[in-house]
Amino acid sequence: MPLILSLDTSTAICSVALHNTDGLLSSSLLGSYELFTERTSSAMLTTLISDIVHQAGYELAQLDAIAVAKGPGSYTGLRIGVSTAKGLCFALDKPLIAVNTLRAMAEQVRGYYPGGYILCPMIDARRMEVYCALYSTDGHELQQTTAQIIDEQSFSEWLTENSVVFFGDGAAKCETMLGSHANAHFPNATIAPSARTVGHLAVVSYARSEFEDVATFEPFYLKDFMAIKPRKALF
């Protein structure tokens, strides 16, 4: 059975997961690690990878593919995750699978909502901006991934006739503006990007041979990196 290692470092959370698969939709989660401590990705990612593979009884050479959350998300986090995934692919001569971070977030919750709901995963992009996309509960993309500044009119065309579930660390901004709308829903549970659902979606991509070009693949940053300029010294 193909063995797939998945990584997600698109936010401050660092997670890895290991799946084996038998067919297009059948997979088993062999193990996962998730660290919710700030700034752990670069320091701990390679350790978590080694630990999860060896504790499941395998060697890195036995992996059949590497999957990574491609973004959107933190510029630094995405760079770390993708560069690590590409390094493994080059070293082990394995294919690379890339999964949209927001799509993987939607996969976590879609089984909890009946048809008719629209899922809107959100990642904080600073100030009143979020990265977001819209998905149906059967997994179809309704609106592509975008960066949006949230105000009282956001998603009005969808909320008029649909119940929309907003979740992720960017949803708090949306709740401030849209929390009183009858069709806007905000789960109490914390829903964060996870390598577990990246791996679940990667199983389908693997069965369809949907692989990336390892040499040219880049993270889906969505926006250019904006460095904060240091203040000039007063003296």
From TrEMBL:
Entry EC no(s) = 2.3.1.234
Looking up Gene3D superfamilies in the UniProt record yields: 3.30.420.40
> Which controlled-vocabulary keywords does the entry list?
Acyltransferase, Iron, Metal-binding, Transferase, tRNA processing
Annotated Gcp-like domain ranges read 38-152
* Xref: Pfam families: TsaD
Q: Name one GO molecular function term.
A: tRNA N(6)-L-threonylcarbamoyladenine synthase activity
Q: What class of enzyme is it?
A: transferase
Q: Which GO terms describe its cellular component?
A: cytosol
**UniProt record, GO biological process:** tRNA threonylcarbamoyladenosine modification
Q: Does the keyword Iron apply?
A: yes
Entry protein name: N(6)-L-threonylcarbamoyladenine synthase
Give the organism the record lists.
Spirosoma fluviale
